[in-house]
Amino acid sequence: xxxxxxxxxxPSLPVTGQSGRFPIRRIFCIGRxxxxxxxxxxxxxxxxxPMFFTKPAxxxxxxxxxxxxxxxxxxxxxxxxxxxxxxxxGANLTPDAASKxxxxxxxGLDLTRRDLQAQAKAKGAPWDVAKAFDHSAPVSALxxxxxxxxxxxxxxxxxxxxxxxxxxxxxxxxLDVGEILAALSTLFELKAGDLIFTGTPAGVSALQRGxxxxxxxxxxxxxxxxxx
Length: 228
Hints:
alpha+beta, four-stranded antiparallel sheet, single chain
């Protein structure tokens, strides 16, 4: 294609054991998918009406790069999450059909400018500036679904400066992966290249410049990073 400006770079994730990379199309996130986290945020869970929001594809931080502390906030929070990557798509899917779309698994952080989110909530305004800012989605390498088999007992953990901040099992999720994707597919046509952040457990708190973190999806993948 002949473009009138230089073609923007294609955001992508590395894949464990492979030289090829996974191109990212869109990033969807589900909110309040762990009851304890909803409670700590003063919210309730509505399983029948899950809440979704998005991040731009180029919000990802990959390959061990430092995560810049964002502008316009003094209260940057971490939210560790299992991330699923889709190898195919569809609309109005059943949970069983939706779960078959998963190409791979990763672990990531949904970084949040909590002070800006609180201001938006107070005004009934959208959360975009609190969630969809630059570098707001650090993500590990992807592990192909053929090599990764998360279960309800799989543990997800975030350590900051060597101390555990967040810890839960995937069975604590309100909606499982198939249910998340099925609900999302009634709102958007899912397609190959989409990433979905599946929600965070309780224990979210602030990050500071110089903090180091380690996010782990037990037995599947882990990654480390630093806030700069």
